[in-house]
Amino acid sequence: MSDIDDIIAGGGIVFKKSSQSKGTGGKVKTKAKKKQYITGAHGSGSAKQKAKYREQRANRHR
Q1: What is the distance between the alpha carbons of residues 20 and 39, in angstroms, rounded to a whole number?
Q2: Minimal CA–CA distance to 38: which of 53, 17, 24?
Q3: Which pLDDT does position 26 carry in this prediction?
Q4: 45, 51 in Cβ contact below 8 A?
Q5: Is the separation of the CB atoms in 38 and 46 below 8 Å?
Q6: Measured distance CA(39)–CA(33) in Å, rounded
Q7: How far apart are CA 38 and CA 46, in angstroms?
Q8: Cβ neighbours of 47 (radius 10 Å)
Q9: What was the pLDDT predicted at 59?
Q10: Buried b (16+ CB within 10 A) or exposed e, 25-37
Q11: What is residue 24's DSSP assignment?
């Protein structure tokens, strides 16, 4: 009960980053930059559609 009383009295709650996120350096791992995903080669319908849009955008200024 004293923990709740401390929070209410003005101590508040402090949220800290976990130690796991410190080791990654803030980088997010993603497969969106991989060659197969960009070209739509791995068979996903979404990837094929996005690859089509990328192709159209690349050819727009040629």
Answers
A1: 33
A2: 53
A3: 67
A4: no
A5: no
A6: 10
A7: 11
A8: 19
A9: 92
A10: eeeeeeeeeeeeb
A11: T
pTM: 0.38
Which residue type does 53 have?
Y
Residues in the chain, overall count: 62
- Decide: 39 and 51 in contact? Cβ < 8 Å: yes
Q: What are the structure tokens assigned to 15, written together?
A: 């949220």
What percent helix, strand, coil does the chain show, rounded to 5? 60, 0, 40
User: Tens place of pLDDT for every residue, the chain, 62 residues?
Assistant: 677 787 778 767 777 766 555 555 667 777 666 777 677 777 778 878 888 898 899 998 77
State in Å, rounded, how far the first CA of the chain is from the last one: 69
Whether residue 54 contacts residue 38, with contact meaning beta carbons closer than 8 Å, is answered with yes
